[in-house]
């Protein structure tokens, strides 16, 4: 089965750190574009970051300098290191693959076709 | 940052009747590669989102053909030809033409 499974969430004080994991099975994380998307309680979806299969990374402005996306191909896992956490970072964090295929070739283009079930991060004193 | 604006934010629809959601972007979503990266996702309570439509009108595998997407440039529409009970939940448009990717606020679809 192809799936993504997030872990690592929890309760942390403001200013603290957490590392989220997105473990992949049935696909290799280093051959796909994988994103982090978060959803604050009762709110909409917010894109956080992506790692391209090339290793290039991109972030939304509110997390730049605080969050770092990385991967370990030997563990087939994507990570999100979150430092200097703020109350507004409280959310369910999802990892999601971006992929669509056409004519036998697959591309990235906002087609978030595979999602994990999410991990909950709560930043509170 | 591209702002995505959905209307309506809430929709009450009778089973079997059509539904339509509009999504407007603050800038053109035409990417430098010529593609327009506008997607639609559906989220039921307590579940992760699931992809319905990508590249304006491409239906994702397994999505019923009562769902269709259309539009160009900055104006896009998701249509459900005949609403079924399983269609309730939140619908989001999303642009991936430029970083940061951004979502609309979400439209809540309920059955009348």
Largest sheet of chain A: 7 strands, mixed
Mean pLDDT of chain A: 97
What portion of residues of chain B belong to β-strands? over 45%
Helix share bin of chain A: under 10%
In DSSP terms, counting alpha (H) and pi (I) runs of 4 or more, how many helices of chain B?
Answer: 0
What are the low-pLDDT stretches of chain A, counting only 5+ consecutive residues below 50? Answer: none
Written overview of the protein:
- The complex is a heterodimer of chains A (125) and B (112).
- With 125 residues, chain A is an all-beta fold.
- Chain A has strands at residues 3-7, 10-12, 18-25, 33-39, 45-51, 57-59, 67-72, 77-82, 91-102, 105-115, 119-123.
- The model of chain A has no long low-confidence stretch (mean pLDDT 97).
- Chain B has 112 residues and is mainly β.
- At the A-B interface, strand 5, strand 9 and strand 10 of A face strand 4, strand 5, strand 9 and strand 10 of B.
Brief synopsis:
The complex is a heterodimer of chains A (125) and B (112). Chain A has 125 residues and is mostly beta strands.
Question: Helix and strand layout, with pairings?
Answer:
The complex is a heterodimer of chains A (125) and B (112).
Chain A: E1 3-7, E2 10-12, E3 18-25, E4 33-39, E5 45-51, E6 57-59, E7 67-72, E8 77-82, E9 91-102, E10 105-115, E11 119-123
Parallel strand pairs in A: 2-11
Antiparallel strand pairs in A: 1-3, 3-8, 4-5, 4-9, 5-6, 7-8, 9-10, 9-11
Chain B: E1 4-7, E2 10-13, E3 19-25, E4 38-43, E5 50-54, E6 58-59, E7 67-72, E8 75-80, E9 89-95, E10 102-103, E11 107-111
Parallel strand pairs in B: 2-11
Antiparallel strand pairs in B: 1-3, 3-8, 4-5, 4-9, 5-6, 7-8, 9-10, 9-11
């Amino acid at each position: 089965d192809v799936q993504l499974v997030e872990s690592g969430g929890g309760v942390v004080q403001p200013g603290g750190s957490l590392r989220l994991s997105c473990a992949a099975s049935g696909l290799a994380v280093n051959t796909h574009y994988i994103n982090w998307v978060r959803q604050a309680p009762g709110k909409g979806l917010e894109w956080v970051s992506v790692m391209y299969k090339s290793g290039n990374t991109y972030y939304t402005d509110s997390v730049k300098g605080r969050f770092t996306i990385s991967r370990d191909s030997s563990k087939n896992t994507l990570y999100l290191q979150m430092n200097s956490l703020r109350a507004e970072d409280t959310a369910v964090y999802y990892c999601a693959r971006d992929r669509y295929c056409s004519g036998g070739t697959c591309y990235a283009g906002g087609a978030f076709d595979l999602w994990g079930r999410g991990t909950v991060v709560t930043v509170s004193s | 940052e591209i702002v995505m604006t959905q209307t309506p934010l809430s929709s009450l629809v009778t089973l079997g009747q059509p539904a339509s959601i509009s999504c407007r972007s603050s800038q053109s979503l035409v990417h430098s590669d010529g593609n327009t990266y506008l997607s639609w996702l559906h989220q039921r309570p307590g579940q992760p989102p699931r992809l319905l439509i990508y590249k304006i009108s491409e239906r994702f595998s397994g999505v019923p053909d009562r769902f269709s997407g259309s539009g160009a440039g900055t104006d896009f529409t998701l249509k459900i030809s005949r609403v079924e009970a399983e269609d309730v939940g939140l619908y989001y448009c999303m642009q991936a033409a430029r970083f940061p990717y951004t979502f609309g606020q979400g439209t809540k679809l309920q059955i009348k």
